[in-house]
Amino acid sequence: MKQVVQNYKSGELTVLDVPVPGCKPGGVLVRTAYSLISTGTELMKVSEAGMSMLGKARSRPDQVAKVVQSVATNGVPATYRKVMGKLDSYTPLGYSLCGVVEQVGAGIDDVKVGDVVACAGNEHALHAELNWVPKNLYTPVPDGLAPRHAAFGTVGSIALQGVRQGEPQLGEVALVIGLGLIGQLVVQLLVASGVRVVGVDPDPARCELAERLGADACGDPGSAAVEASVAELTGGHGVDQVYLAAGGGSNQPVELAARMSRDRGRVVDIGKCRLDLPWNAYYEKELDVRFSRSYGPGRYDPEYELAGRDYPIGYVRWTERRNLACFLDLLARGRVDVEPLVSHVADFDDAVETYQSLKDGALKAVAVLFRYPGQAEAAGTEAAAPVVAVPSVEGKRSPARPAGTPVRLAFVGAGNYATSMLLPHLAGREGVELSTVVTTTALSAANARRKFGFARATTDLDAVLDDPSVDAVFVVTRHSSHAELTQRALLAGKAVFVEKPLALTEDELAGVLAAVEKSGNDRLQVGFNRRFSPLLQEARKRFGARTGPASLRYLVNAGRLEHGSWYLRQDSEGSRFAGEGGHFIDTASWLLGADPVSVYALTTPGNEDLQVVLRYPDGSTATISYVTTGASGFPKETLDLVADGKVLKLDDFVRASVYGPERWVSSRLPKARDKGQNAELAAFVKAVRTGGPMPVPLESLVATTAATLAVRTGLASGVPVTLAGAR
Question: What 3-state class would DSSP assign to 130?
């Protein structure tokens, strides 16, 4: 098997072929699926190995003291041979992984072959294809938790033990110094505990990440903003706890901790930083300094770790293993999110290059995972990294209508959207005849007939579908009926305009396409109107062609729904994003000129605010922030497109601008926002009248719908979803 090792004398890193470990009693043999690089602890070890002998001695004065003692006891020659022999040996790296049980040792009855487990320990959870792990250093992974997330179990336990040492209470305020991997996890654990958090780190990107993950404020160690935030949150008293999650030789973290703490506050050391405590500062506040020892009680105790002797829960509530299980449970329930921390996933065969990139600074990362060959299916990663098929479709051209013949339209549904956003643009339009309106209640049909001039009003859908004079059917009903009504209209040979969404499930989408194939009728349009907005079309034209990948950011300030809204009936009408999200995915894809190839979705606790990241074939990305917790006075839709030194900015379909070699700013529209409904309907009517291509290619409608549905799949799995077959 293969294992990552390092020669501490020369600094050489290599992937070495080593014998497979035996499966001893009291443990299990685990085949690794993912292992996590601790970008703090491991990189420190890697950097030390690359130092000169003098540098190594300076970095480890504790080891130098042992050498001096050995010289006094055994003499220089014997000590030299002992030290050189130890230095000139391969040592392992790694201590946090997730894998599949391949063999069970004697005395183990809590897992079986094939179970997925998270493993800990710098002697047992190594960067290796196979590891023997004793009972108290592994725990089963909860159902539904992705193996790549479970690989964070050990570092999560370290952060969890540190938080336990701080004894946080609801409503307290904490300061986290150092926002690397451990610090980011500490932030989330504190937020989950009801604690308000201020973070400190010199890296602005890490500060921004911590704020996204729940910190109230973050900043540089020397910034006045940090002190102001602490003063505001604590009423000037200082924080209740400080967590030292920083490394390095500076004493600044310890001094900052004293300055920011309240009287008799708690300071917890989790990382490995310099600890020259300023006596006056710590004495005057009587600060309680605590140390957090790795994963929790049991660490470094061979009776616990190797012999498998557990501590009674009545005396030691949280042991190493119980901390590991607790952290995995928090991950599985969505209380902690590690996916935003994953900066890079490398194949295990590329381990040496990955470490070198981290050491050289070419790879800036909070967390890096090794993915092991051939383990995706065995570890359940196939379910965790799903693939959604995008059905292939082929467009056709219908014969043109005789000149002078009006296009006869029927409406199925006459609710608010139909009567306010569609029918006003069609009533009285030259070359259009409003033939029939169909509703479930007679009165609403009669009202629509009277107001918009339909020739007939009925509650009989079959009569409309069987009417040869009707050219096109508009489906403007509740979401749950869209797919079925679209299928029926297509099979009846009608052109169809269906409001979004086209479908609420993959099966419904497949049913629509089956109707297209069976009938040979692909005359379908979905109400994705924003690409038809005159303002956005002009902005896209001014932006011009692009040569490199683009970044698109779309903020949708959706707001909260009113009590009783049928959008809240998710069991029957689908999620709110399933109903509306296609608008924004279609707009992004139109601006980028392609369909997405993968979808990654995240949601805040309570499923209120949603982040959807789309990746496109040329490397372009689009991030859609669909939020319900924003201010009602803020514009609903704002968009930025960045590429090739240019920026396109759209402000809620009221104003647009392009920054680049030539700047363009639209005039503020004097009337209501034009989101493209009129132009969209004109294009649809023209296509029906002339028999020409529909306004949006069918394959694009299918790809957008598949991507919208993939958001649900991605939220369930916690990993990006590949859109197989996307153009």
Answer: strand
